[in-house]
Every structure is written in structure tokens, then in C-alpha cells.
Amino acid sequence: MLSKSCEYAIRSIVFVAQNASIESKIGIKLIAEELDLPTPYLGKILQKLTGNGILQGVKGPNGGFY
After folding, report:
1. What would you measure as the largest C-alpha separation in the chain, in angstroms?
2. What is the pLDDT of residues 19-35, one digit of tens each?
3. Is residue 11 classed exposed, middle or buried when 0-12, 13-18 and 19+ CB atoms within 10 A define those classes?
4. What is the pTM of this model?
5. Partner of 27 at 20 to 30 A CA spacing, among 1, 41, 50, 60?
């Protein structure tokens, strides 16, 4: 049995892997909307994933995750 955090992380990684690239990053709002996840909680999860090198993130108006 997986925790909610683990489940959300796996779903997010798969979604980003299928839909993003370095040229077309995906914002947190779109990820949360598409996967029906709470944005603030997802933000904390994505922050940990980028900190551990699993995802890459770019800040700013053209930012997002890939």
C-alpha cells in the first residue's frame, strides 16, 4: 500500500514524462488540474522530486517542470 504522497508523486512523474520536454515545460496548475490533485500539496511533492533530481523545474513566467 502506498501513501498518498507516494501515489501523487508517481502519477505526477508519469504525467510529466509523457507530456513535457525541456522545450515545453508543464506548470503545476496544469498538472494538478489534469490529475485532480490539490495544488499546494502537489507543490511540496514536486519540490522534493526536483530537489532529489527526479524532475527538473524552472521558475518564472515560462517555467514549469520537465
Report:
1. 37
2. 998 889 999 999 999 99
3. middle
4. 0.89
5. 1
Q: Which residues share a beta bridge with 58?
A: 64
C-alpha grid cell, residue 15: 504525467
19: which strand partners?
none
Please give the backbone phi and psi of residue 28, each rounded to the nearest 5 degrees, phi first: -65, -35
Beta bridge partners, 65, equal 26, 57
Residues in the chain: 66
Q: Which cell numbers hold the place of 13?
A: 512523474
Structure-block grid coordinates of residue 29: 496548475
CA 51 to CA 36: how far, in whole Å? 23
- What value does the CA radius of gyration of the chain take, rounded to a whole number of Å? 11
DSSP 1: -
